[in-house]
Write a structure and sequence with these properties.
Elements: H1 2-16, E1 25-28, E2 31-34, H2 47-50, H3 54-67, H4 71-89, H5 94-136, E3 141-144, E4 150-151
Antiparallel strand pairs: 1-2, 1-3, 3-4
Length: 163
């Protein structure tokens, strides 16, 4: 039972970091572009457009620098996993085994929550970059939601007239 729990938690830890960022789509001039074409540099698919605006480029750089910092969650996740694995391989008393199990589980859980919180808060930089670009530049950038709807990055009003 304990071994099954540890394997399940290790799989949870690995899949917890697999996000759906690579499937995000932006619409520019009625064409679809991948926002994250590679896993190393999130937001790189919009760089060609966002580089045209200095403020938007700053927000994009801030977004990419924050999202590329992966050493802390990797180290903390490894420590939690080692704590869990040590309950199986190390012959200790029952109290020590329970302490290692609870410590490993809580370390993995807190690591997951902190990493997800940082990632979600980091998204505001990408949205702000697109918003700044859309204020001053053409063509406009919109995001496509999971439902297939086109969503603007922030709420603002715009009226175009053509005759």
């Amino acid at each position: 039972m304990l071994k099954k729990l540890i394997v399940l938690l290790c799989l949870f830890q690995v899949t917890a970091y697999a996000n759906e960022a690579c499937s995000r789509i932006a619409i520019i001039n009625q064409q679809e572009f991948l926002v994250d074409p590679n896993l190393n540099r999130k937001g790189e698919g919009l760089r060609f457009y966002l580089e045209r605006d200095d403020k938007a480029k700053e927000f994009l750089e801030k977004y990419q620098n924050t999202s590329s910092q992966r050493l802390r969650p990797a180290v903390i996740g490894s420590v939690g996993t080692l704590m869990l694995l040590s309950t199986v391989f190390v012959n200790t008393s029952d109290n020590n085994r329970k302490a290692l199990l609870i410590g490993g589980l809580s370390t993995l859980f807190v690591n997951f929550l902190v990493t997800k919180t940082i990632d979600n808060n980091n998204e505001k930089y990408l949205i702000e970059a697109v918003h700044e670009y859309n204020k001053r530049r053409e063509p406009k950038i919109f995001f496509k939601s999971k439902d297939g709807e086109v969503v603007e990055p922030k709420v603002y009003l715009e009226k175009s007239w053509s005759f």
